[in-house]
Write a structure and sequence with these properties.
With 255 residues, the protein is mainly alpha-helical. The protein has helices spanning 9-14, 19-36, 38-48, 54-77, 79-84, 86-109, 138-163, 167-194, 198-218, 226-240, 246-254.
Length: 255
Amino acid sequence: MEAHSIESLSPLIQGADQWGEVLLLLPLLIALEAVLSADNAIALAAISRRLHDRRRQETALNLGLLLALLFRMGLIIAAQWVLDFWPLQLAASGYLLWLCGRHLAGLLSGEEGEGDGSDGQVPALPHPHPHPHLNASLGSVVATLAVTDLAFSIDSVAAAVAVSDRLVLVMAGGVIGVIALRLTAELFIRWLEVFRHLETAGYLAVGLVGIRLLLRVVLPTLDVPEWALLLVVASLFLWGFSVGNPAAVVAAGSD
């Protein structure tokens, strides 16, 4: 989800006729982007963890989100076309649902290893016998990060343009969103090792966004209350942070 999807912000931003007033809103937008992009951030964090070296993870996040920023700017410019082109929205929905389904399938098959809380691709802590498919190239991770953010962005582009017709302001919101993602994704990389259910909670939120996109295509007249969606996502993340990983605590204490 994105801050632009909060309908209560629309009158506030539309009423900011002077750029000075808009600048006063930027801290609020930054804070909201950081909080409401948590489902996107956790997916990006889990993808980047396929690279086991922290420096490579940071490089992948930097390059992937730079590419994602270019994609976002393109989507904003072509927002009206995106609104009318339902196959693109359907493809984004399918991709997000696939990400969620792959994670859940990994949990059910037990490929993630007992008690590590991951999706079968990257264990929460270093494992002495890693799965042969755990290793990923930097290029593939960067591309996956960019495509994943693109799928999330499609859910918010229409709402962003509806909130404001100022292209520069909407683009500024896109830049803020990417910066917020970069900061929160790095935090989640650490938190995924500490909280056992956090990754699953994040992927369930990803699936929720996919379902929302699918409903927008299949049932465009269906109006899902924004507060209900936020309540479900908040509940998922409360559950995600509810149980720590004892192994991570022991590892941290031994450092």
